[in-house]
Specification:
Blueprint lengths: L3 E7 L9 H4 L4 H6 L8 E7 L9 H5 L3 E5 L9 H14 L2 E5 L6 H7 L5 H4 L1 E3 L5 E7 L13 E7 L1 E3 L9 E8 L4 E10 L2 E6 L12 H14 L27
Parallel strand pairs: 1-2, 1-3, 3-4, 4-11
Antiparallel strand pairs: 5-8, 6-7, 6-9, 9-10, 10-11
Helix pairs in contact: 4-5
């Protein structure tokens, strides 16, 4: 099996402080990275928002097959040039992109989906100190991202995300979340953009150890394998469509 180059981007803000620090003492990115720790087919890079270029330099992105993204408070502080380069890597080069939980409001995800909403405009939310029990029902059991899972994933506590969520219709719906308060939401959504595939996965409120659950780890591994393009994400300069080169001949207007 070819090596899959996975970069994990974490805002790494709230997890420096309580109460999140007690839940993820090594940072949320460490818990996400643990999903891949014993899998030799993955090569990991960690990027955080406080790094130069948010850890997502052109060199890092050019050596990334799948980018996994968790962000929350500082979505609006992400450099626009970095967000644009992430989108270009997806559309032009085939890099996979995974948006976790509140990365629904990240610049790359919203630009790739063609939306621009604040949290209060996007859907229904309900947060409380103890969270709510969530059940992720698998509605596409034959899909590779759902491989090795039971009928549903039980999450003892999470922040409620509910419909209507103002996102485009996905190319494929994999999970529907049910909440003990009665709400539901499209929790696992797949989209195709240019050469790349993107996956939105809503579980992951920072005050609950959701990214320590083995079933969530399996979803992340499965998603990375599915989203990684055959042969790896690579620049295709000079190959015509989506190469970035101007192909139109306007010499007749000179």
């Amino acid at each position: 099996m070819n090596e899959i180059r996975v970069t994990i981007f974490c805002e790494h803000h709230q997890d420096r402080f309580e109460p999140v620090k007690s839940v993820y003492p090594n940072g949320m990115h460490a818990a996400i990275a643990a999903a891949f720790a014993e899998e030799p087919s993955f090569r990991l890079t960690i990027a955080t928002q406080d790094m130069p270029s948010h850890g997502l330099t052109k060199e890092v992105l050019e050596h990334t097959d799948v980018l996994i993204w968790w962000s929350h408070l500082d979505n609006n502080l992400l450099d626009d040039a970095v967000a644009d380069e992430v989108c270009r890597r997806v559309v032009r080069d085939g890099m996979g992109f995974v948006a976790l939980h509140s990365a629904s409001f990240s610049k790359p995800w919203q630009r790739l989906l063609g939306i621009e909403y604040e949290a209060g405009e996007w859907g229904r939310f309900r947060t409380m100190p103890k969270g709510e029990r969530e059940r992720l029902w698998i509605v596409a059991p034959g899909h590779p991202i759902c491989e090795g899972l039971e009928d549903f994933i039980e999450i003892p506590q999470d922040e409620m995300y509910g419909e209507p969520m103002l996102i485009p219709e996905p190319n494929k719906l994999l999970f529907i979340a049910w909440w003990e308060g009665g709400d539901v939401c499209r929790s696992g959504t797949l989209f195709e953009r240019g050469r790349g595939k993107i996956f939105g996965f809503t579980p992951g409120h920072e005050e609950f150890p959701i990214y320590d659950q083995p079933e969530i780890h399996r979803v992340l591994r499965n998603a990375a394998r599915f989203l990684a393009p055959p042969g790896g994400a690579r620049k295709r300069a000079g190959e015509g469509h989506l190469s970035g080169e101007a192909l139109e001949d306007l010499s007749h207007r000179m």
